Task: structure prediction
Amino acid sequence: MPLKTLDLSLKAVRVLQDGSNPPEQGLLLPGWYVDPQTGQHIFYDPSSEKFYTLAGGVYIPLGYMTPAPKQVAVAPGDRLKVTISFKYTGPAITGVTGYYCLGVYGLFGFDEKLVQKTTFNISQVVSPPASPNVSDSFTFTIPADIGANWDDIYVKIFGGSPGIAGEVTTPYLFGYENALTIAGIQPNITEFKIADFARV
Amino acid sequence: MTLDIVFEPMALEPKTFNIGDKVRVTVSFKYVVGVNTTVKLLAGPYYTNIFGKHLVSPCVGQADIPLSAASTPAQGTGMVDFVLIAKSLGGIDNGTYGLRVWVEDTNAIAEQDNVLIVSGNTGGGDTFSAMLPMLMMIMVMGMIMPMTRQMAEGVDEE
Result:
């Protein structure tokens, strides 16, 4: 497959994936592209209309991570519940896989540290719902060896019968950056001051 | 791990101590830690010269401070004692010193210059230590001389 160079910024990719602007005709060709700002190789899939990048051995679409609306403080032994919800219209689906991941999101994608899967069913919905009508969740137990930078989360859904998407190519994924504040094994000390000193 | 330390004006008043005094230092701080743990708190006097700040190591004291797991900032306090050891015993000289307190293996540190005024070292002690090497030499010579005299007398008799 030929390697193509595209005058494209990641910001433009986000707009494209948001669906706010229709993709240009020149971007519809499938293949590899190079982001001129980062030099990163990205793959465009016209069927899903998304760009993909390599992370942990799989290709995941760009632009799926957003800043977390809040931060949750966690420590080893704590239980962290991650809940997803979405609007669904269509036939009933059985055996949908929910893929929950904690890790480190960086320049080269998402480094998955903790991964858990759930399986859930979706009932038939004939008219578009006004609010999210499907939800699923998983509760992580924070391990003792959690890294101080394992503060990113992403979730995706795929599979099922009839299938909604493949595991690697699913467009149904979403993540938060800096969603967690990790209290690790080493203490983090602030406001350290001498209160008093005296002879005893 | 990056630790953010916020210094606040300590405004500690200088205090006078005598050699042999035990000084108790109390610190306060906030911390976050994922598991129950124990940190080592150390404190001691330091002096400043053109080469920088230097701890008077023989006078540094330490104490273990237990920290309960806290995922949100918790208030912590700690106390550590140190003894002002006499100069003649390798300790601290008379003068004015700073006070430094820190937590081992972190960058939590607090210090203030010129708050420890130390006195009580006697001049006699210093004179004795200065004369000690000479006294040792005289004692050794005192042991060697009789031995050499005996050996010389033994040779003459033969």
User: Anything to note?
Assistant: The longest strand of chain A covers residues 93-106. The two ends of chain A are 80 Å apart (CA to CA). Chain A has two domains: 1-63, 64-186. Chain A touches chain B through 30 residues (CB under 8 Å).
